[in-house]
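Working notes for the structural subgroup meeting. M.R. asked for a predicted model of this chain before we commit to crystallization trials. I am recording the input and output together here so anyone reviewing the notebook later can reproduce the run.

Input as submitted:
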Amino acid sequence: MAFSLGELAERLSARLVGEAGVRIERVASLEAAGGADLAFAMSPRYREALARSRAGAFILSEDLLASSPAPALVVANPHLAFARAAELLHPRPVTEQGIHPSAVVHPEADIAAGVYIGPLCHVDARVRLDEGVRLGPGCHIGPDVRIGAGTELVARVTVLHAVRIGARCLIHPGVVIGSDGFGLANDRGRWVRVPQLGTVLIGDDVDIGANTTIDRGALEDTVIEDGVKLDNLIQVAHNVFIGAHSAVAGCAGIAGSSRIGRHCMLAGGVGLAGHLELADGVQVTGMSMVTRSIHQKGVYSAGTPLDTNRNWQRNAARFKQLDRMARRIAELERRLGLSDNEED
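Returned structure, recorded in token form:
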């Protein structure tokens, strides 16, 4: 889909510098862009690549405008504007409406206008699919599920009984929503499964990446609020709460009954122990293990940085000596009459 640069400036609320009639067909990187492409640069470290780029136009912040070799759309947040331009220039393909002949839809299901149910889907009793819902190939929708208007399940998504999903969500292949949480009671060395009686409540505008799993609550519900973005291969355990507009990167694991505030960010591989709470605005860096609640917004890290194997082994051996060393230092300070507040 093509737009003139003037049309894009209007759609993106950008200040146009240069010829409004330039025709833009695609978005591309600075390095790969050609004359019909739109590229973006968001920091001064891209200044040289910007000057060399052969793109037809750029999305830039004001401080990079002098380095632009072509017309530009000037905005405060180039990354955000580029994302919106990409949506305009590369709209998601629209599949046909209706129900594929190979799909199985229970007669008690309530299917609104404009819904698409693809090949080999199964839709159970008392399901409600609101207007414009799209189920890609192989999706299973269990009984009493409700899915809001405009939500798309791309392919092979499993949504189990009584789950609620809001409007305009995008759920990628392999996602499982509403499976039993890991609830077990010990009977003299043998595990007894605890019935999981809650469900999963997902708000509007939520994205869920491929092969992510969200367990249903044990007694209360697992809750994912509006605007949450989950990457691929994330485990969300039973009774977890994730506040609005938080983002979680791939391979994170969130244990049961953890509560994550609004506008939080968990980087890749982060692990949260169960029954803890993160305040609004907390950011946790990659591969960190969170074992206690965090009550103040900010950036938090854990873990041992990468080192050569020889140094890592030497330091790992010393970790076991830290308590003894601390006690010896405290005893030396006591003998010297030093307090904890005194400095060298």
